[in-house]
Amino acid sequence: MVYARLVLMRLFKAVIVLFLIVIFNFLLIQMAPGDPAAILAGEAGAADQEFLDQLRERFGLDQPMYVQLWRYVSGIAMLDFGYSYRLGVPVFDLIMDRLPATLLLTGTAFVLSLVLGIVAGSMAAARVKKPSGSLIMALALVFYATPLFWVALMSVVVFSVYLGWLPAYGLYTVGAGHTGFALVLDVAKHLVLPATTLALFFMAIYTRMTRTSMLDAAQQDYVKTARAKGLKPGTIQRRHVLRNALLPIITLAGLQAGQMVGGAILTETVFAWPGIGRLMFEALQQRDYNLLLGIFFFSAALVIVFNIITDVVYRLADPRIKGAS
Amino acid sequence: MKTPLALAITAAALALSTAATAQEPQRGGTIDTIIQPEPPGLVLGMIQNAPTRTVAGNIYEGLLRYTTDLEPMPQLAESWEVSDDGRTYTFHLREDVTWHDGEPFTADDVVFSADVFHRELNPSARAVLQHVESIEATDDHTVVFTLTEPFGPFLISFEAGTFTMVPEHLYAGTDFRNNEHNDHPIGTGPFKFANWERGTVIELVKNDDYYEEGLPYLDGVNWHVIPDGGSRAVAFENGTIDVLPSGTVENFDIPRLSAMDNVCMTEEGHEYFSPFAMLWMNNREGPTADKRFRQAVMYAMDREFAKDVLWNGLGNVPLSAFGSNARFQHDDLEPYDHNPERARELLDEMGYDGEEITILPLPYGETWTRWAEAVQQNLREVGINVSTQATDVGGWNQRLGDWDYDLAFTYLYQYGDPALGISRTYLSDNIAKGSPWNNVEGYENERVDELFNAAATAFPDEEREALYLEVQEILHEDVPVGWLMELGFPTLYRCDVKNLVTSGVGVNDGFKDAWLDR
Prior knowledge:
- The complex is a heterodimer of chains A (325) and B (518).
- Chain A is mainly α and 325 residues long.
- Chain A has two domains: 1-77, no CATH class; 92-315, MetI-like fold (Orthogonal Bundle), CATH 1.10.3720.10.
- In chain A, 76% of the residues lie in helices and 0% in strands.
- Chain A is built from 13 helices and no strands.
- The relative contact order of chain A is 0.14.
- In chain B, helix 3 packs across helix 4 (123-129).
- Chain B is built from 15 helices and 20 strands.
- Chain B has 518 residues and is an alpha+beta fold.
- Chain B is globular, with a radius of gyration of 24 Å.
- Chain B has helices spanning 4-22, 50-56, 107-121, 123-129, 168-171, 229-237, 254-258, 291-300, 303-310, 340-350, 366-381, 393-401, 418-421, 446-457, 461-478, and strands at residues 30-34, 64-66, 72-74, 77-82, 88-93, 132-139, 142-147, 191-197, 201-206, 220-224, 243-244, 263-266, 276-281, 357-360, 386-388, 407-412, 481-486, 491-494, 497-498, 515-516.
- Chains A and B meet through helix 2, helix 3, helix 5, helix 7 and helix 11 of A and helix 4, helix 6 and helix 12 of B.
């Protein structure tokens, strides 16, 4: 009941925030240099005035800005995101077409980084001042500091060029005609390198954060009490230290989850993963504003949704948080 | 020094390879290749950008095809006649051609494509069609084009990408851009559209009913979409990809990839386009408005260095405005060799005061960035105060369309005839804001306008030649733009892919004759 009210309140606010985001994005994009019609004409390598005028009229770019804004906002209100300038396909279809691949990639990376990060962080906290603990932290620091694209390229060089274990790019093997279980296995193989690449950075952050906040929690009185009443060290770590150390990790996980739609541009580009990130990057280069605005909208919506989920999870993890919303 | 054994092995290898070229083509197999960037759609005629041409050139066809010497070959037209006054062109169509949906291809399709479809949608075809008075189907398989006046390049305009034949029965009377068949293009070509997973692959399959006996040999072609240049190189290295069309990997990867076993390279197949890299120089304002400054830039640049280092020695440094594949090239002009001394003299003469100018590199990848750096260094050596400004494609388009630049890189296709690919850069009535492909530099010269306009409609060719030679002399002196290089765009492929490039548009229509020796 408490949760239902919380969620309802938040959803109401979310609608207002989304509305403001739509307007802000629209105005922001108007400020970018580059006219979509000119870019399309440029890509065609030939253009006369008639061609440019046809394009502008089709996209409604010949209208004053407030008319364009009104058309766009009233379209969004009816969940009509318009057509992609370059591809001539409804924006909604394009996004839905790419969304599964992106969610598969970022979702896998999310789970992978969260689980491995917490495990590694707990291990490091339990082994503080031991060489093995320092090794974990050193590795985490390396992953934290290494640029993502470099990791991606190097993992391709090592695992697909030299060792030949894993495919270098794509979502599945083109032309192999796999179905059923074989297809699942094929996609899983293609998923290994991009998901790992994407997971490493967040895994490093989770590791560092888990360790710090667990060491922090371990100083608390209730841990001393637990130890005094004779609980096993493992049980103390899991039940008393880790659970209390989870809050900052939930915050961060909420942030990472919010980036799931648009946060994998580099990885998707290097690994030719047919996801939203690439779509967004191409839309930006082509000044395909409708498409770009559509993707911004979805990303923003997802961030808001995950913020609400994070708030609910806070309350589940720590019953002390109740009012104040 | 080769040992006798090595010589014997070489001889044996040579004998083997000669045997291989003489062998019978094999049927079957699918070729994996790359398309970069992913095209916006595949309906050629509606979309004319390079990636669409490359894929859809195998689905659609034109009336004619062109050899690597740009001589016309029969395609959908099996023969043609030109009247003595150069105004009437009669095409006799093949009678055994069907569209991919089984309908027969007839003269009505040609009239519809040229007179309705292209007039409405296609700027490059429109440029040719403005010389056409009427297009008539005299019977089911004969089409007559009557021109308002002779037009020299008319016969070279029928390439599939420029003058695509589209099916009248599917498009007539519809809203072309929203036609339901745009998602599933129907042509007459050797391959049929099968499937497009956006962001992943475009699959074409063999057209079993193709009218040319026995063709095509391949079962299909898969065009992979890989957005990152490094990843494309890897895909070729590890054997997933058989053919790397030109421009799909960075130039600095080419020596490494071409040195691999079983990898062959060809520069053929770009004669029709013959991409010509140029340096726009703003003729309107700043130091670049002075002819002597522009000449100084030409002398300051070490174009041979750029060719050897950035382009792996491929391509060709032009004398002047006409490239080697354009017709009527003037070969007796004093070359603008690398001559910093001469450049400094010219700058002194004009009294260049060190005003700062900028270069816009072409935002098409690392090679172009490096090229701009090389030119910047050349210009600084002769005392020109120059800096580079990076943009993305959108910004570059905008800056050129608004004439907001001093020097800017570009490259343009030559389309086999000066009236199609070259005059557009220099004609003064082609000055208009908003496009980066017209007379962007703002050059105006009445005599040049007269000569180009007269040459386009002069008849026969000898008349045209005299006019074009004169115009080249004027342009050579005025340097409206910098002529950098005719680009060498190599195609890399596994050596067991045979007969890959058989025309002047290369892999855009090449898979028709290709076969796999596997």
